[in-house]
Amino acid sequence: MNIVALILIVLMASTLQAATGFGFAIMAIPFLLLLFDPRDAIQLNIILCFLISLIMVYKIRREINREILIRLIKGGIIGILPGLGLFIFLDVRPLKLLVSILILVITALLVAKIKFQQSKLKELIVGAFSGLLTTSIGLPGPPLMIYFAGAKADKATIRGTTIAYFVFVSPISLLLQLSMYHISTGVWTATLWSIPFLWLGVFLGQWLFDRLDQHRLQIIIYFLLFCTGLYLLLTTL
């Protein structure tokens, strides 16, 4: 394991997560896959995403929209088990290809100023897709990013509600994976190395959040969605 590479990945990804509420998995997974076995990379990503969300959630508790959060969690519970089935039994390549195309198409629509109307049903569906992608390919963020960007939610609500959702969905996903696959010693070692740099990333990300206006956040979300879609597409073909 390359410790320096791991530290840089964790520091950049946690800074992005703390600043926007998204981005840890999107930035970390492509590089973690270069350092670890795919299942180890996904499990490490879920552990670190949970830890950074846990570190932040109390501080940002007033930013959380609890009604939206409850609906996202209900949807997440629906999606987690099918995602686990994909992780264990099926080839996730077709799923990755479909998700990559959908992300790129929807991102193009968002850039073209297409808006979504918020609704309770949409929030359940978004939560379900996020739960499915968490346990299957370790990427919970894109459905939430698409929904919040299309609904033009304010930056505080986006960050607070998303991080609170990750606090819930990440440990459940990990526990379900543990019922089938143990966590390797290498993952635990990487986690211990990463914790100090998660804290540093939270500090830097908060500094950026205070200086980030709504327009710049939208641009960052579009960029992350485009990178995610392109990454999934290229690694699947």
UniProtKB/TrEMBL annotation:
It comes from the Bacteria. The keyword Plastid does not apply. It is found in: Cell membrane. It is a multi-pass membrane protein. One of its GO terms (cellular component) is plasma membrane. Pfam families: TauE. Keywords: Cell membrane, Membrane, Transmembrane, Transmembrane helix, Transport. This is Probable membrane transporter protein. It comes from Desulfosporosinus youngiae DSM 17734. The lineage of its organism: Bacteria, Bacillati, Bacillota, Clostridia, Eubacteriales.
